[in-house]
Amino acid sequence: MNISIVGAGRAGSSFATALELVGHDVRVVHHEDASMITDAELIILCVPDDALSSVASSVAPREDRVIAHVAGSRNLDVLAPHPRVGSLHPLMALPSGSDGDRLIGATYCVAGDELVRGVARSLDGRIITLRDDQRTTYHAAAVVASNHLVALMGQVRTLAESIGLTLEDFLPLAQQSLEDVASFGPDDALTGPASRGDMATIDAHLAALPESERSTYVALANAAFELAERHRSQTPA
Asked: How much is the pTM?
């Protein structure tokens, strides 16, 4: 398929690599050149979410091509007035422009024209679909699963380095915990003081932590308490 990607950032470059690897003819253009695209069967917008409408409107609508975006938080209305539209959001972190291999076999939230679904299948993707009113919650879940997890590891690094250790000392614990979640689910994977109702230990933690780190700890400890309480209430006596 002849595909033009608008945007040469991390997402655009990664999509270009992935699509080329599976045999598509791909051209990458900067957003200011989007109006010059003439021969693409599919135009994929890999631009900031707030720029989607303006970039889409700069491209002449045509019945013989599809224009799509890769934004997880946006519906298809941002692509008006194009007659054939779609979206293709990967549930995959793309921290650099050289992560195209990650997109092969990834999970994609797909909407709109059937051509976009075909592109996801060509990437050996697992396809999920949602209603428009579910999309913001879906994207929030994706942010928590990826961005917030990375931020949490940033806090682990801060605490570790304050006592002469490193993030690497704690990564096996984090990795094992994620494996436990995958194997048993969050309820049964939860361990630690919140799962035991051990307030004395949590109070000791808060006393030892720098003030700047306490709010995150408290928020997550509360979430752990709630998870543990739900699990206890659902477990037969």
From this structure: 0.91
